[in-house]
Design a protein that fits this description.
- By secondary structure, the protein is of the alpha/beta class.
- The protein has a single domain, classed as NAD(P)-binding Rossmann-like Domain (Rossmann fold, 3-Layer(aba) Sandwich), CATH 3.40.50.720.
- The protein has 11 helices and 13 strands.
- The chain has a 7-stranded parallel sheet, sandwiched between helices. A two-stranded parallel sheet has the order 7-10.
- Helix 4 packs parallel to helix 5.
- The radius of gyration is 18 Å and the shape is globular.
């Protein structure tokens, strides 16, 4: 089976390409960051240009399409709202429409940030209330996808793992600073339900194989603060958790508004029979991959000057 994965240099996209390439014919879509010597095919495309998605699907002729491409830096979206809208809203709708035309299963990655975080425990039927440009464009992306393709699968996610740059996830932020003995802050008033990136990839493929469609929350089953998350990483690697100071997101000087409680209910996903690994399993896998130099292996795939 040929699987087309956009955002192939992002944290989820690259890890998904590598994890799935032994089992599938994977084509990873890249643009500004170039890759070299990867064990999967590459397709270069500027997804911000209208019409690119159609040309790409016509050229690749995939059997499944996993859309991991996004402008995901929250504060950057505030500064570049039109670019965020193009990548997070318009392009997913175009991709969903093309996949409907060609009868290709389409999986779109959305975010827990579509909620305002006032209560937590959100189910798929709860009404979103996005607080930032990023969240709004991602929610609009969900709507465009379903308008274009009612058979699409949209997964709201929150994940962590190792990336090509070593600084794209909260786990990497804590790891990098703890290793350098740098004091950092950890928000005690921001709750979330993170899932290790490899576990998320496995869940997405299981969802595709089951032929699921519609909206699902695909996050971890444990609610944790960002402060406690950092402390758990420190404990796993026997690092000094006292370097992490409890703090409030309200005092961090962030540009975009943040949602304080983004714990999502995953009952709908679990009802399909899909097993969601516990957070401790994810943290252990993150730790094991660190000790096996996974991040260094990822960074080696980036071409010089790419």
């Amino acid at each position: 089976m040929r699987v087309l994965i956009t955002g192939a240099t992002g944290l989820l996209g690259l890890n998904a390409c590598l994890r799935l390439s032994p089992r599938f014919d994977v084509i990873g879509v890249v643009h500004q960051t170039r890759l070299t010597d990867v064990p999967f095919q590459l397709y270069n495309a500027d997804l911000s240009v209208k019409g690119t998605v159609k040309k790409m699907i016509d050229a690749v002729q995939p059997d499944a399409f996993l859309n991991c491409a996004a402008l995901a830096k929250v504060d950057q979206c505030e500064q570049m709202p039109l670019v965020a809208e193009r990548i997070n809203t318009c392009m997913p709708g175009e991709a969903a429409a093309e996949c409907k035309t060609h009868q290709i299963p389409f999986i779109h990655i959305s975010t827990d940030a579509v909620f305002d975080g006032q209560k937590g425990g959100y189910t798929e039927v709860d009404i979103p209330n996005p607080l930032s440009v990023y969240a709004r464009t991602k929610l609009d992306g969900e709507l465009r996808v379903f308008e274009s393709n009612p058979n699409a699968l949209v997964a709201r996610v929150n994940f962590f793992g190792h990336s090509i740059s070593g600084n794209r996830s909260l786990a990497e932020f804590f790891l990098r600073n703890l290793l350098a003995n740098n004091a950092v802050n950890g928000f005690v008033d921001v709750l979330f339900s993170p899932l290790y990136v490899h576990h998320l990839t496995d869940i997405l493929i299981s969802m595709m194989k089951k032929g699921l469609k519609g909206l699902y929350h695909a996050v971890g089953g444990e609610k944790i603060s960002k402060y406690d998350f950092g402390c758990r990483i420190a404990e796993k690697l026997s690092l000094d958790k006292n370097l992490i100071s409890p703090s409030s997101y309200k005092d961090a000087g962030l540009i975009a508004k943040r949602s304080p409680n983004l714990f999502l209910d995953i009952s709908k996903l679990k009802a399909t029979g899909i097993v969601v690994p516990a957070l401790d399993q994810g943290l252990q896998a993150f730790t094991t991959d660190f000790r096996n130099h996974w991040q260094e292996k990822l960074s080696a795939f980036q071409s010089i000057g790419g």
